[in-house]
Amino acid sequence: MDVARLLLSGPRGRRLCLELAMALDPGVREMVFQHGYDLDPGRGSSRIRLVAFAREDEPHDPAQNEPTGIDGLVDRLISLGAFEVDDASVASPLVRSVDTARYWQEPDGEDCSLPSQKWGRR
User: pLDDT of 59-74, one tens digit each?
Assistant: First the structure.
């Protein structure tokens, strides 16, 4: 089994890949934040979201028109393409992946964002 398939086969490996993608593209981080909240089992009770709204006279961000949901996130991740990973670039994402592991309770919304079957369909 190649390294990519091995990483994507388990929740911590998928989270590591997601953390790497979020480090590469702030747009991925925003989509994961939005989508992760929607999937989080603690949504509205143990996890809340505060949002700031722009005034009408402020310029519109065209990134807000991008597809949302799991399909939009997967498309955005695929658009990143392949990239080189070295020890320095993987250190912080690895720490974040381990720090978010909560084996004694349900996974959070970000961990639910990338179920393995979605990766297999593309």
Answer: 655 455 556 677 788 8
